[in-house]
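#struct-help
A.M.: can someone run this one for me? Single chain, 461 residues.
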Amino acid sequence: MTVFKNGTLITMDPQRRIITEGAIAVQGDRIVAIGKATEVRARFPDDQQVDLKGNIVLPGLVDTHVHLAQAMIRGCADDLSLIDWLSKRVWVLQGNYDEDDGRTSAELCILEMLKSGTTAFVESMIAGRYGFDGIAEVVKRSGIRAALSKVVMDIPTYATQTDIMYPGMKEDPEVSMRQALEAHDKWQGAANGRIQVWFGPRPPGGCTPELYRRVAQHAAERGMSVTIHLAEVQADVEYIRREYGMSPTEYMESVGLLGPNVLLIHAVWLDADDIARLARTGTHVTHNPLSNTKLASGIAPVPEMLAAGVNVSIGCDGGPSNNTYDMVRDLRWASYLHKVRALDPTIMPAETVLEMATINGAKAMGLADQIGSLEVGKKADFIVIAMNKPHLTPSPNPVSTIVCAATGQDVDTVVIDGKIIVQSGRVLTMEEERILAEARERAEKVYRRAGIEVRPQWPVM
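D.P.: on it. Structure tokens below:
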């Protein structure tokens, strides 16, 4: 038993209570008590005590769209349009990975996520060449919670662009499907339930309707979830209209890929009928504000989706499209972007955004009864924000402070499954210096193999 005492607790419970001078008692991997510190300490006077020193405590952040393999190629494709971004840089670099590169990039990404307060994430597209087993081992050792999605595909195109996929990224449909099912057999529920295995089919243009239906069937039979990029750019909508005469969500429903076990990525170019269809089917959406902004993909109709009852969460996306995996930084963008789009400062208040990053993310992962809020009986997944800093002082509204002022560098402590994973900003389960050195070395070799050189536009002396 450990009692974490003297913190301001943003519980995200059904009443959305904020408990000042609060405490959380943890036994094993569960929260067994939460309330005022005096009351909790009175119940457990002889147990180990951790003083939170007045800092803010909130549920661990849930990043529902991550590309682990892209951490090691961060900054490789700045200021490019999506097609060039993919075909000239990202796919070429990733298509030159080996399994050790995939493992190292996963370590780098998870190290960054843990240090900045992410306790659970959804990885969307693990290619066979990255080495699924090595990545799952990294998740297991690090202590983080993850849904790892194996890519499946059978067409090497992207929306309206044909034959642009780098050869190293192409996978045989039977091989990719077999690998996904084998990964599910081996890793589903591993690491005390911290690891899930999902399907990560390529977006329309990368899969035939027949393959999508096979994914839907296997997912239904095995109780698997599916995450898929949809309507990220206007070309996606044009492709689906041209090929199938449907809207994006009509097409997904026709192949069996809408529902409570489906998490759509981006969903930028949806109309009112699309949104209503997502609400009716209970389909989840992950909003990626920084990625959509950097690639000029558009602004997803998030307030409209939330108003319709769609569960919308938040994702950082990848190293080349966001350039960091700092969820705290993305919270601000998820709020401000929609204010300026609507010319309405009341849209997307801090409270809504924090819900998206915690309890909504838990729902998207199928874990709302386990994580996403600080409640008795739930998993002990929470983070501590160090508040004694100029940019966080004063803090009349702790929710606003987190969303509008904090960054991931303000995270001091991370607890997952009742274990302290990050302490005083240091990840206890990972070798930070070794990972950074290896990532630099491996990235340099990948760039050389790919024949790509990235330099500043200005002269380097």
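A.M.: thanks! The chain has a mean pLDDT of 96.
D.P.: also worth noting: The CA atoms of residues 142 and 337 lie 33 Å apart.
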